[in-house]
Amino acid sequence: MKGKTLLYAAAILALCICSEEAALAQKGKPSKAAQKDTLLVMEDFYTDEYLDTVKVNRKLKLNDYSMIGVHYGPSFTRAAFNPSKKQGWLFTPVNFGITYTTHAKMFGFMPYFGFEAGLFYGQDGYRFKPDPESGEIRENVDQARKAIYNVIQAPFQSYFHYEIWKVKLMLDAGFYLGYRLKVERTYDEGVSTDYVNSFYDYDRRFDYGLQAGAGFGILLDPIEIHVKGEFRYSLSSLYKPDYNSAYYYRFAYPMDVYISVGIHYQLGKRTGKTRSELKREAREAVFGPEQEKPAKEKKPLFGKNRKSKGDKATDSDAAGADTSAKGTQDSGTTPSENTKASQSVTAPETAPAVSDTAAAPIALPKEGIMEASDSTRVLAPLEVPNID
User: Fold this and answer.
1) 241 with 208: CB under 8 angstroms?
2) Residue-wise pLDDT tens digits, 210-241
3) How far apart are CA 201 and CA 147, in angstroms?
4) CA 18 – CA 9 distance, rounded (Å)
């Protein structure tokens, strides 16, 4: 008795559950089993006081902006001589220039790269060291123990940067082109020469080389303050290698370490949405999203449009059709009447008899196409041989 009661109760419970599921399905709502796997968030579940305490981390969006800057700083220079000579670093305080930097995303999503170009005026040269025992300077180049060259240089570098809060870390590498404008040589006492401020015939004035550097910057939008160190190595010797001997070449490649402080002004917005993006969003909010305009047909650069052979054939067919239509209009008949007349064919009077054993000959009409009208051409009757 108890077992039957439990079975009845289970059947009634299953029936109730099935009816409830069917009712939810008819109303378009998810079933209770699906609702258990769904996270429901109420609109007013979080209070304003709680939301004020939530810390939201904003993602920094870097734009492809440009900036222009001025630099100034001293440099320490020397030359790589071959054969080698004893020398020290020469301090030159006159080094300044202007740069233009543009930032760009690599592969469209890596905003850490850019390009930098500039124009600098500076100094490089060499200074020989005295002998530690005698105190005399025994090394020289054409009796000069020191030389300072005034140069103008135009660097072109690739630029890598990474920003942490208000600090920018920078790396750059590239090449430069230059020209030696002036020279100032220092000789020992008693040496008379006319080339203190003049170039020899064998001196090379055109300069080019490699450079690379690193530094950091302080971001005070729209101002950036950069502190950088650059190493430059010339690939153009100060003089021709065979000027003294056709058998023993001599080289002198200037190099320097340049430390500069630069102030840059941003020509665009560094982070966030730019002015053009804000204008576009405002226009779309008022007038809706812009629809793409159909592509315009490209016009030839020179002369008129030249048609292909297929296009010419199509045009000739169309011209022929227009001529035939005009001819039919002149004859007094319409194209539809001519078409109907040409399509009317005499049907055979009797259908061919077909036997079960052998195929009987088919009676074909001996006349081809009937005469439709006076304006259409009459075709000759079609002769069909008799089949025995």
Assistant:
1) no
2) 999 999 999 998 999 999 999 999 999 999 99
3) 16
4) 14
Q: Which amino acid is at 74?
A: P
Q: How many CA atoms lie within 13 A of 127 on its CB side?
A: 11
d(CA 97, CA 293): 46
- Interval 244-267 mean pLDDT: 93
The β-bridge partners of 80 are 253
Closest CA to 195 of 207, 213, 183: 183
Neighbours of 180 (CB within 10 A): 21
Instruction: Tell me which amino acid residue 373 is.
Output: S
Domain boundaries, the chain: 66-266
The tokens for 280 are: 């576009």
Rounded Cα gap, residues 122 and 207, in angstroms = 13
Q: How many CB atoms lie within 10 A of CB 96?
A: 13
pTM: 0.58
For residue 169, count other CB atoms closer than 10 A to its CB: 14
Backbone angles phi, psi at 304, to 5 degrees: -90, 170
Give 262-273 pLDDT, tens digit per residue. 999 999 887 767
Q: Is domain 66-266 in CATH 2.40.160.20, yes or no?
A: yes
